[in-house]
Specification:
This is DUF4956 domain-containing protein. By secondary structure, the protein is of the alpha+beta class. Helices cover about 55% and strands about 15% of the residues.
């Protein structure tokens, strides 16, 4: 056992002595730290994205983006930590991602919030220096995950989707026929409607534009992309 440890130590020392273009082939201490921090950050991202976001929003189209952004930001911050920009660098990243907007598909507020959380956690786990102990790092991540859990589970802040419908039974839009309108819309769409808004009325063509709002958890078949 002892001989194996000595052999591994000698191997690492030999690898660290190898240089190419005046750059070390490997820095064992930094490499191990990268693996440990990356694994820890990955576990936290899985907890947030898979077990908090996914179970309460029922949208899978953002999974790829959340994981990709989290991994990229972590590696970017970790590898550029030697630049010593630290807080200013982190704030610069927040500013860059704060103005990002996907032109083809606007991000809903809740998804944008989770994206900000993913970026923030990745930056924290990557830029925490030797002055921050591992216990402080674990507690910080636990507070963030626990806070999201409380908001999602205890306060039950569910996401609300909307769907615009062109409705031809114009007589049902009268405010005295609210129950008839909701019943008719539920029968036609099969959606458990929470509320609705009449956005446009055209008496010339006897049609109205109605926006219905519903809970995606209760209506999993209707995953409306905004």
């Amino acid at each position: 056992m002892l001989s194996s440890v000595l052999l591994a130590s000698q191997l690492f020392d030999w690898l660290e002595s190898i240089r190419f273009l005046d750059i070390k082939l490997i820095n064992v201490e930094d490499f191990i730290e990268l693996l440990v921090r990356f694994a820890f950050n990955g576990i936290v991202l899985v907890l947030i994205i898979r077990y908090l976001y996914a179970r309460n929003s029922n949208r899978k189209d953002f999974f790829f983006s959340f994981f990709a952004v989290g991994i990229t930001v972590f590696l970017l911050c970790f590898l550029l930590e030697s630049v010593k920009l630290e807080l200013g660098f982190a704030l610069g990243l927040f500013a860059i991602f704060g103005i990002i907007r996907y032109r083809t598909d606007p991000i809903p507020i809740k998804e944008m919030t989770y994206l900000f959380v993913v970026i923030g956690i990745s930056v924290i786990n990557a830029l925490a220096n030797k002055k921050v102990s591992y216990s402080e790092l674990v507690i910080t991540n636990a507070i963030l995950v626990g806070g999201l859990y409380l908001l999602e589970r205890i306060l039950r802040l569910r996401q609300e989707y909307e769907l615009e419908i062109r409705y031809e039974r114009i007589e049902n839009i009268h405010r005295m026929k609210e129950e008839e309108l909701i019943t008719d819309l539920r029968q036609r769409t099969g959606i458990e409607i929470k509320r609705y808004e009449v956005t446009r009325i055209d008496f010339l063509r006897d049609v109205a534009n109605i926006t219905i709002f519903f809970d995606p958890i209760e209506n999993p078949r209707y995953q409306i992309k905004k």
